[in-house]
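Risk register update: the risk of archive-format incompatibility is retired. Evidence:
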Amino acid sequence: MSRVEGFVHGVSLGEVSETRKAWSPYTLQATECEYSGGVPVSSVIGSAIPSGGMVPRATLPELSLFRLYTLRVAYSVMAAGLGVFIWPAVIRHSNELAIAKGAELALLAGLGATAALGLRYPVKMLPILLFEMIWKAIYLLAIAWPLWSAHQITAAVAENIKAVAMVVIFVPLIPWRYVFAQYVMKRGDRWR
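Archived output:
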């Protein structure tokens, strides 16, 4: 028997004698355990403590340092671009601009501020880059293309297209194999 120190959910564990514990990547499965005092070991299911010091290996390969820096370049471009062009309009704007484009400005300002987190967490913030690419692709295909086909491109729309088309610089910076493995091939989070 071994003495387990500490608390689980505010209850002392007491003495625990274990005959077998199995580790899964999602939960600590405790089975066939005896206990004396405190709570049964089976009540610590969900703990992040692996049995026997075994830690499951990640199935996804790590990105190279070069790839991490290319992601940081993408986040820098995004945060700086939105910071230079959007934040001044957010800070100093007229009521007419707030009525016409207030939600758009707020969304883009928030996107730029969040992209700055990608400098510190380049892999975790990949969904921000994907969101940026997806909304711009939707704009170019569903809004700009029909206007261009109908020969109805105005000066304002042409400026929007020019700004939105800058998304092509992100295409080579994103680690597409990793994105495919992480968001398409990897099993999703559990529903229950």
